[in-house]
Amino acid sequence: LLFPVSNLCGKCRPRDTDLLQPSLNFLYWTLHQTTPCSQQRAVAVLLSNVSLLELLQKVLECTWLWSPPSRPAYLSSEDALLCSGWLLVASLLLYQHRYNTEVHQTLSVDLTQVLNAVIFRNKKPILLLVSIMQFLRALLRQNFSSSLLVIVGQNTATTGIQPQPSSLQDTALHPLATQQVFSLVVSLQNLLVHKDLLLSRAVVACLETLVEYLYVKNQDVAQHVASQPWHRFLLFTLLSGGQKSFLQPEVLRLMTLFLRYQSKNIISQKEISQIIHEAAEANIAELPEATSCALHLFLSQV
User: Fold this and answer.
1) Interval 152-190: pLDDT, tens
2) Which N-terminal stretch is annotated as signal sequence (predicted)?
3) Residue 155 to residue 139: CA distance in whole angstroms
4) CA dihedral angle for residue 285, residue 289, residue 290, residue 294, rounded to 10 degrees
């Protein structure tokens, strides 16, 4: 089915949302639900379809064209298509790298626009924001180097000011600029405060990948990001309200992140002991899978 569906997508226009959106969803789920052996073949089929890749390029570009000043609160058909497009491209990036699949047509994306979509949000629906963050994670995990993707807008200056001494950091973090990193971290922190489950998990995953990228590029910047005092206030905010338990997946993963990079001003022995105490009293077999995995990573890190 990959052949006719991918060929059908290549014959469509971005405005054909009723046909494209379920078709892209089918391609996405085929990549994720098939066996590893079939997955490699599926990636090869999709990446050899030039018309499909050209269509995906147009869909990504529509993200910036379909952004009216006042977006509806619900997910429109256009936004749903954009979500499917970003998720599919993120998956293709991941699997093309894993299997070193031959690429017949490259995609291009403006890094500044991708970062600004997360930093400023501009009333984008949560699902679209999560999809773009998934794409950003794929870029970070591949060190912004992929034979499928061409990055444009690298280190685009937001002002006419000449680079300051921090340009040495910019060079180390290339293609990110130091100011972009700090703005992105602040935005991710603010998004966590919304306490939306889907958004929270995507934000924590993006923050984890970002700090891992920074640690390889510049350990000082990574340590600075991981040890910001605001993180401690953020933890207390996440623990406030109805569910005060430390055994929340996003809280556990944040704690693990701070432990990994030795952010002693964020997480203390008291919090570590409290988590272990809650875990000892919990019925581990009844914990949700996400919580169980996060707890395993936390205890391993301890």
Assistant:
1) 875 443 333 333 445 677 788 989 999 999 999 999 999
2) none
3) 15
4) 50
